[in-house]
């Protein structure tokens, strides 16, 4: 490796890792928004994945892939528990229930000695390198792209536009909604585990309400027409604070303004692409 | 001991209820979960702080803060939501836009005035508590309990007995039908926004006085608790919010007293999750909710 | 009637609060029939469609399709059993193209497992191409070939109505429920719609239609059911319903009666 590149990677290693992790988080948000639902539990799912894998790393000798699997399956179980009662109801209920989940998690993490309380967990082995993080990101992007360009993606778009019309056309709403929420929880859990094993430290306040809103802003800025929109949103919003360092105090102010402007004035986001399905174009 | 726990519970519960009254009304009539509602709470507390630091007595500062918070609510509602209403955007769009605005407002406020805890000037309100049977309650606490009760009764009265209330209920049922019946829905929305903003602002002042600690994020903490209250009471149900607020307050006080204070804050959210499992339309199941 | 009815509804009741929107309602539609449901505004016609398609759940009564009860199934399960519908206030996927709207309607019939979707192997491409081909044919059938790739929301009102019918047909339904298909159409569009309905009948597709355009209903339909205040007040072939004094008085009124006799367009 050329020395200059090596230098660059060393200087910016945490930023490069965050870009990949935030990309995965943006995709996890995309999966839910793509069917017209709103989850504010992405940060909580991420936290569950992060803590589960970190505790396994610190206390057991489990192989890393198995830890990653656990970091995806445990949030998935939470998603099932939260989705079962709420997905039958109007979308507001999922949003509110996931806020509740995030707060319960935060309170639990702060109070529990096992999870290191308010201090969090440190000394997590650095098992997640760039190759793994970006490999996961590429695999998730490719899979989502292939799915959006199929009948499943078409049905998801239909649900987002008009649930009722999709249902009478034979789209199984409960199944689609639940699958989307579970997949999204798994992606967020994976992102959490990778982040924990890249940064070596995690704390209970990393996964609160503000984090959930930041993840939402990735997807809204980029647009939910295709997975690439959300990725672009994560890229911009992860780099922006680096570029606007002097504005540090106002970083989240910018995120908030972006959400407002995106919802009101650019509902299709920065990247308004629609998936290129067979037959979608002459 | 038990008496004091119950008093603490009723006071905390009344505070939750007071806050949640406007929150649930916003959903019932305007059909949105307006997350900026918590900001009006913070704004009310800071406005009253500003007024009292400039020598105003609390009897003046409280109505000033409530009215100003009401106008802030009307302004934000029209800036953020009128466009989405015109487009008949999905209800989650309004939730997201108020979410973004919330982040913007809280972080902006923190960046401008700092996050240090601020306090009302000493001697603003009689602070010696009333004592009886070994328990005590302060004047502010009594004010919170009475305001919550009177306000809930007043709101139910307005909704049931006045023309504006009738119009509000018609809109809660069906905004388009309301419009057809000759109701000026814009005017009603502005009134509801003002009323809700004023309730949030006033509760911010009272609760700020009670805790004697004002921070930018006090509204967010309260709003998170408020979700539990309005879901438990049933979205849009004013009476339900009062009872749910009291219930959560009492359960929190008893949890703190007899189990452990560290689990106190989990009570509300646990109830929220359980409610969604068992009775998604709230304890009384009569909320204005549409099934998906 | 010799064959078992395709759709049979017995004792259907729906209440809002204390008020009955539909009360003790019976109906049957035989295979291949083109029947109509008429009645004044607010009579409960759309409520009935919502009950049949599963968007609302009845308080009492049962709904059978092809002999099997469907009244506890979800809307998508009912679609799978062969039920399709259109909406009075058009519910298209506005940002998707016309052909994609039809492809969503075909959802139940497009193959390809998740593995095939992720690997692009097996039936995936073939199934998608076949679906696109079928969707093109349907658009041609309803006369929308020139607009295949136009966003549904950009189409004219009459075209949107026809696109909704194409989307419903894409599900290959046994029974098609049409909620006021001629509403808002100009005379030329209505004439085109009548031809379309006749073509569908020639293909032996059973239809139940809610419609206010009396000349369309009287000319086309086999059996007409008249609904008022959620109750059935008359039923029979057009001539009988036209002559029914109860219908004349209770529903059609003097002006409507003149309308039915053809005194006005």
Explain this structure to me?
Chain B: Keywords: Amino-acid transport, Cell membrane, Membrane, Transmembrane, Transmembrane helix, Transport. The complex is a heterotrimer of chains A (282), B (292) and C (265). Chain A is an all-alpha fold. Chain A has a domain at 22-206. Chain A has twelve helices and two strands; from the N terminus they run αααααβααααβααα. Chain A has helices at residues 3-11, 13-33, 42-59, 64-86, 91-111, 130-148, 151-161, 163-168, 173-199, 209-222, 227-243, 251-265; strands at 121-122, 201-202. The longest helix of chain A has 27 residues, at 173-199. Chain B has a single domain (2-116, 139-278), classed as ABC transporter involved in vitamin B12 uptake, BtuC. In chain B, a hairpin with a 2-residue loop joins β1 (130-132) and β2 (135-137). Chain C is α/β, with parallel strands linked by helices and 265 residues long. Chain C has helices at residues 45-53, 75-80, 98-105, 114-119, 124-141, 157-170, 187-202, 214-220, 238-243, 245-261; strands at 7-16, 19-29, 34-38, 60-65, 68-69, 83-85, 175-179, 206-210, 224-228, 231-236. In chain C, α5 (124-141) packs across α6 (157-170). The two termini of chain C are 34 Å apart. Chains in contact: A-B, A-C. At the A-B interface, α4, α5, α10 and α12 of A face α3, α4, α9 and α11 of B.
Topology:
The complex is a heterotrimer of chains A (282), B (292) and C (265).
Chain A lengths: L2 H9 L1 H21 L8 H18 L4 H23 L4 H21 L9 E2 L7 H19 L2 H11 L1 H6 L4 H27 L1 E2 L6 H14 L4 H17 L7 H15 L17
Antiparallel strand pairs in A: 1-2
Helix pairs in contact in A: 2-6, 2-9, 2-10, 2-11, 3-4, 3-5, 3-9, 4-9, 10-11, 10-12
Chain B lengths: L1 H29 L6 H17 L4 H29 L4 H23 L16 E3 L2 E3 L1 H23 L1 H11 L1 H6 L4 H27 L6 H16 L4 H21 L7 H13 L14
Antiparallel strand pairs in B: 1-2
Helix pairs in contact in B: 1-5, 1-8, 1-9, 1-10, 2-3, 2-8, 2-9, 3-8, 5-6, 5-8, 6-8, 9-10, 9-11, 10-11
Chain C lengths: L6 E10 L2 E11 L4 E5 L6 H9 L6 E6 L2 E2 L5 H6 L2 E3 L12 H8 L8 H6 L4 H18 L15 H14 L4 E5 L7 H16 L3 E5 L3 H7 L3 E5 L2 E6 L1 H6 L1 H17 L4
Parallel strand pairs in C: 3-8, 3-9, 6-7, 7-8
Antiparallel strand pairs in C: 1-2, 1-4, 4-5, 9-10
């Amino acid at each position: 490796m050329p020395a200059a590149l090596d230098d660059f990677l060393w200087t910016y290693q945490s930023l490069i890792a965050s870009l990949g992790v935030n990309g995965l988080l943006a995709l996890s948000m995309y999966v839910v928004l793509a069917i017209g639902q709103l989850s504010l539990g992405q940060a909580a799912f991420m936290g569950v994945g992060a803590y589960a894998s970190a505790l396994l790393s610190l206390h057991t000798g489990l192989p890393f892939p198995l830890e990653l699997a656990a970091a995806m399956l445990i949030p998935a179980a939470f998603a099932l528990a939260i989705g079962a009662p709420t997905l039958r109801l109007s979308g507001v209920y999922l949003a509110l229930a996931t806020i509740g989940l995030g707060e319960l998690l935060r309170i639990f993490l702060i109070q529990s000695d096992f999870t290191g309380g308010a201090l969090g967990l440190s000394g997590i082995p650095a098992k997640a390198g760039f190759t793994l993080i970006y490999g996961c990101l590429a695999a998730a992007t490719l899979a989502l792209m292939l799915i959006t360009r199929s009948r499943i993606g078409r049905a998801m778009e239909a649900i987002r536009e008009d649930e009722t019309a999709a249902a009478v056309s034979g789209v199984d709403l409960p199944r689609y909604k639940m699958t989307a929420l579970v997949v999204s929880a798994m992606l967020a859990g994976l992102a959490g585990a990778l982040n924990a094993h890249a940064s070596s430290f995690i704390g209970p306040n990393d996964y609160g309400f503000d984090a959930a809103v930041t993840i939402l802003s990735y997807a809204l800025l980029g647009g939910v027409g295709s997975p690439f929109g959300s990725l672009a949103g994560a890229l911009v919003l992860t780099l922006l604070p680096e570029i606007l360092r002097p504005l540090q105090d106002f970083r989240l102010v910018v995120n908030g303004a972006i959400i407002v402007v995106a919802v009101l004035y650019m509902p299709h986001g920065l990247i308004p692409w629609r998936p290129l399905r067979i037959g979608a174009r002459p | 001991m038990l008496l004091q726990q119950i008093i603490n519970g009723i006071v905390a519960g009344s505070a939750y209820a007071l806050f949640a009254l406007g929150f649930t009304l916003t959903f019932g009539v305007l059909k949105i979960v307006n997350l900026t509602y918590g900001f009006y709470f913070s704004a009310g507390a800071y406005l009253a702080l500003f007024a009292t630091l400039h020598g105003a007595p609390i009897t003046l500062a409280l109505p000033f803060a409530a009215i100003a918070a009401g106008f802030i609510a009307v302004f934000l509602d029209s800036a953020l939501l009128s466009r989405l209403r015109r487009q008949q955007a999905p209800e989650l769009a309004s939730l997201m836009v108020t979410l973004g605005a919330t982040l913007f407002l809280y972080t902006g406020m923190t960046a401008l005035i700092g996050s240090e805890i601020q306090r009302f000037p000493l001697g603003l309100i009689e602070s010696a508590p009333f004592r009886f049977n070994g328990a005590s309650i302060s004047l502010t606490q009594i004010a919170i309990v009475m305001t919550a009760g009177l306000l809930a009764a007043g709101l139910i009265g307005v909704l049931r007995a006045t023309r504006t209330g009738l119009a509000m209920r018609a809109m809660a049922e069906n905004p388009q039908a309301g419009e057809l019946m000759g109701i000026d829905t814009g005017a009603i929305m502005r009134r509801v926004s003002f009323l809700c903003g004023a309730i949030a602002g006033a509760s911010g002042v009272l609760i700020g006085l009670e805790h004697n600690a004002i921070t930018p994020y006090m509204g967010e903490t309260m709003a998170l608790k408020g979700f539990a209250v309005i879901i438990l009471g049933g979205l849009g149900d004013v009476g339900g919010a009062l009872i749910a607020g009291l219930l959560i307050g009492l359960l929190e006080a008893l949890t703190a007293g007899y189990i452990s204070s560290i689990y106190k804050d989990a009570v509300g959210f646990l109830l929220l999750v359980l409610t969604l499992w068992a009775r998604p339309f709230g304890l009384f199941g009569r909320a204005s909710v549409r099934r998906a | 009637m010799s064959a078992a009815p395709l759709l049979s509804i017995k004792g259907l009741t729906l209440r809002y609060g204390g008020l009955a929107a539909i009360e003790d309602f019976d109906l049957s539609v035989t295979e291949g029939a083109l029947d109509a449901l008429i009645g004044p505004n607010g009579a409960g016609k759309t409520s009935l469609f919502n009950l049949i398609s599963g968007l609302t759940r009845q308080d009492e009564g049962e709904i059978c399709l092809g002999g099997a009860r469907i009244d506890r199934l979800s809307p998508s399960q009912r679609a799978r059993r062969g039920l399709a519908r259109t909406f009075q206030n058009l519910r298209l996927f506005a940002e998707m193209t016309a052909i994609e709207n039809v492809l969503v309607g075909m959802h139940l019939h497009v193959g390809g497992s998740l593995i095939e979707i992720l690997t692009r192997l097996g039936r995936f491409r073939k199934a998608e191409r076949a679906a696109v081909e079928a969707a093109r044919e349907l658009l041609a059938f309803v006369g929308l070939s020139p607009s295949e790739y136009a966003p549904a929301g950009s189409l004219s009102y009459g075209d949107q109505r026809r696109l909704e019918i194409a989307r419903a047909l894409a599900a290959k339904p046994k029974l098609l429920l049409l909620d006021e298909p001629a509403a808002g159409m100009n005379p030329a569009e209505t004439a085109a719609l009548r031809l379309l309905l006749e073509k569908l009948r020639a293909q032996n597709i059973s239809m139940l239609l809610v419609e206010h355009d009396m000349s369309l209903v009287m000319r086309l339909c086999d059996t007409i059911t008249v609904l008022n205040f959620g109750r059935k007040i008359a039923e029979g072939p057009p001539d009988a319903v036209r002559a029914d004094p109860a219908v004349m008085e209770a529903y059609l009124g003097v002006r409507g009666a003149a309308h039915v006799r053809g005194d006005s367009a």
